[in-house]
Amino acid sequence: MGLVEYFERIFLPQAAKPEPMPFSRPSTVSRPEPAPQQTRFERDLGLHVARAKAKGGPVVAGSIEVVGLDDIRQTLGPRWDAVASRALAIAAEVIAERISEDDFSRDFGDGRFAICFGNCTKPEAEAQARVISNAIKARLIDSMPDETARISVSRFVAEVEPGALDAETGDLTDLLMAQMARMNVEAKQAAHAFRRNMLKEFKVLFAPMWSARDERTHINRCVLDLSLGCSTLAQFRAIADPDQMTATLSDIDRLVLTRVIEAFHANYKATMGATLLVPVSYNTLKDPEGSADYLQLLSAVPPLYLNALALEVTSLPATLPGARLASLLDMLGAFTTKVAVEINGRGDLLDSDVAPRLWGVGWNLYGLDHTDTARNATMSEAVAKARDLGIMTMAHGANSIGLALGAVEAGIEHVDGPAIHLWTHAPRPPTRLNPLSYPKRASNWG
């Protein structure tokens, strides 16, 4: 069994695991639904369906569900009832505040909420549902940060044909929720199949990094070959819900690590002495489930291979506190001393608790030009500060010699990108590297 098969066995079955049917496991918290609300919803739904039939349009409806309350029952013990009741009350408050006067909702009392959008298109309703679910999660964190870390808020919006909602065949609310449950399951199953095929298309390539100090390759940055996967990922984003998208990006991070280990195993002797820089998204590390899976994969990597790896945390939020990032870096530091962060405009992190934990810092040059790098005082100051702290500096994605030179003039030591060297299928050994069409020019490295 190859290393790819070994590591994929750890996470691909999970990635392919079918999603549970929506609302199949409602929270067991006891919070009866108010009878007047039920009556109003049934009445308003009947009127809304009648209007939709008259206009020949669909009924746009959505669901919001507070997920994970049962998962924290054992941890909270006797406090669980109060915490769960408070969490559901917060969700109900937010929904009541956020829906428009044309919308109406129903609280089922078990973590499920139905919303009918009275005058919205489906895209507008999806945007509104996104705002509502984010607001619920934010208020839960503000009100109960310790208790609600593992609680999530799911949402689903669908267009239901009014012909499927016939009061003569059953309760309108039951019919609506059954239709939405069926459509949600079908959408999730389609997204899972799409995701599995998409993950097979991604390939990992290597971008040799040029050292301005000695004009050699010491580091190979691992990159995704998106020639096929990029459009596929965009298509998947259009049909996947946020939780599926988060899980997929986490899968991709683990897939990259897996492919890197396989490549290193196949080219061990030829690439001995080179460092492989592996990106991992901040979103993967901040998610409890995603970080647990990623650390489990790291723990399965042989120590000899770990010595050749460096991990670079990417996609940092603009307002991420240094203390939060430091705690995530400590998790990675348990496996390797080579931990880097793609800081871009976050030079302030070098003044925080993050700095002592860093082996390197990186800048993404995508969309920049020579002036943005060579004459960027903020970048130059951060580079100088990193150098004083003994932290390695790197720049990624230089697509022109001018941009690469600008990064070097700013003091950055290691640069990669199409202007330096084309991506390769195997890591490049630590040998002399002459960038493509590189003109000799004085730099901060002399």
Can you identify the CATH class of the largest domain?
A: Alpha Beta
CATH homologous superfamily of the largest domain - what is it? EAL domain
Tell me the CATH topology of the largest domain.
TIM Barrel
Structural class: alpha/beta
Order of SSEs, N→C?
Answer: HHEHHEEHEHEEHHEHHHEHEEHHEHE
Strand content: 15-25%
Count of folded domains: 2
Q: Mind summarizing the main beta sheet?
A: 8 strands, mixed, barrel
Basic shape: elongated
Distance between the termini: 49 Å
Spell out the blueprint of helices and strands.
Elements: H1 3-16, H2 35-55, E1 59-67, H3 73-76, H4 80-98, E2 104-107, E3 112-116, H5 122-143, E4 152-160, H6 172-201, E5 203-211, E6 217-225, H7 226-239, H8 242-266, E7 275-281, H9 282-286, H10 288-299, H11 303-306, E8 309-314, H12 322-333, E9 339-342, E10 360-364, H13 370-374, H14 377-388, E11 392-396, H15 401-409, E12 414-415
Parallel strand pairs: 6-7, 7-8, 8-9, 9-10, 10-11, 11-12
Antiparallel strand pairs: 1-3, 1-4, 2-3, 5-6, 5-12
Description:
With about 450 residues, this protein is an alpha/beta fold. It folds into 2 domains: about 170 residues, Reverse transcriptase/Diguanylate cyclase domain (Alpha-Beta Plaits, 2-Layer Sandwich); about 210 residues, EAL domain (TIM Barrel). Helices cover about 45% and strands about 15% of the residues. The chain is built from 15 helices and 12 strands. An 8-stranded mixed beta barrel has the order 5-6-7-8-9-10-11-12, surrounded by 5 helices. A 4-stranded antiparallel β-sheet has the order 2-3-1-4, with helices on both faces. Helix 6 packs parallel to helix 8. The protein is elongated.
